[in-house]
Amino acid sequence: MRVGFFFTCLVDLMRPSIGFAAIRLLESAGATVFVPPSQTCCGQPGYNSGDRQGAIALATKLVAEFEGCDYLVAPSGSCSGMIKTHYADLFRDDPAMLRRSGALAAKTWELTDFLVNVVKIDRVPGSFTGSVTYHDSCAGLREMGVKQQPRTLIGKMREVELRELTECETCCGFGGTFSIKYGEISTRLADNKCEFIARSGADAVVLGDLGCMLNIEGRLRRRGDMKTRVLHIAELLAGESA
Fold it and tell me: Are the CB atoms for 110 and 85 separated by under 8 Å?
C-alpha cells in the first residue's frame, strides 16, 4: 500500500513535528509512505482569495505528484477538503484535468479518517497521561466528515481522559484569510473557544488542523494561559507531544 503523504504548507513551515508524527502513524499501520520532495501547496489560499489561475497551477502540480499513489493522506481536513471538494470547481473547464483530479479526490483522505476506516488500526504507538478536550475544525468536520474518527483513536489510549468541549463544532475564528479580513470577529470567536477550553479543565486541547491550532494557542497565550497544551491529533497518537 503506497500512501502519498501531503505535508501541507503550514506543517512544513511552522510545526514539522506534526508531519513526522503522521508518518509514524501511517508506517505503524503498515503503509509505505511516499513524500514527494517537490510538493508545496494545494492551492487553497489562492482559491479562497480569488487567485484562480494561481490555484489551478498549484493544483495541477499536486495532482501530478500524487496521482500514482494508492492513497493521498493529509494531516489536515482543510487541505484534504480542498483536494476532495474544490478541485472539481477549479478544473470545471478542463475535462482532462477534471478526470485526473477526480480520480485523485476519490482516494484522498484526512489522516484520522484513513487510520480508522481504511487501515482500521487497533492500537496507536503513542502514550499520554492526562485529560484532553477536542475541537472539531470546520473543514474536517463539514467537508471531510471527520467527527468520531479522532475520538475513536483517542479512545485507544488507556491513560487519556477525553472531556467533550462545549460548542466543539463552532469555528475558532481562524478560517484562513477570514482571521485577517475580520480580525475583531475572529478574536471574539477565539475568545469564546478559549473560555470553553478553560471550563473543560483539560490538560490539552487536541485538534486536526494546524491553522486552528495556531489561532487557538496564540489566543490562549495572549490571555495568559501558559499551561494548556495545544496538540495536533497526530502528535498525541504518535507520542510526539512531549
Answer: no
Task: Round to whole Å and give the CA distance between 92 and 89.
Answer: 5
Contact, 155 vs 180, CB < 8 A? no
Q: What is the pLDDT of residues 115-171, one digit of tens each?
A: 999 999 999 999 999 999 999 999 999 999 999 999 999 999 999 999 999 999 999
CA dist 73 and 79 (Å) reads 10
Contacts of 52 (CB under 8 A, 6+ apart): 46, 90
Residues 6+ apart with CB under 8 A from 60: 97
Chosen CATH of 130-238 out of 1.20.1070, 1.10.1060, 3.40.50, 3.40.630: 3.40.50
Domain edges within the chain = 2-117, 130-238
Whether 81 contacts 177, CB under 8 Å: no
Q: What is the spatial distance between Cα 151 and Cα 139, in angstroms, rounded to a whole number? A: 17
CA distance 126 to 29: 13
8 Å CB contact between 188 and 232: no
Per-residue pLDDT reduced to its tens digit, 80-108 = 999 999 999 999 999 999 999 999 999 99
Contact criterion met (CB below 8 Å) for 98 and 92 = yes
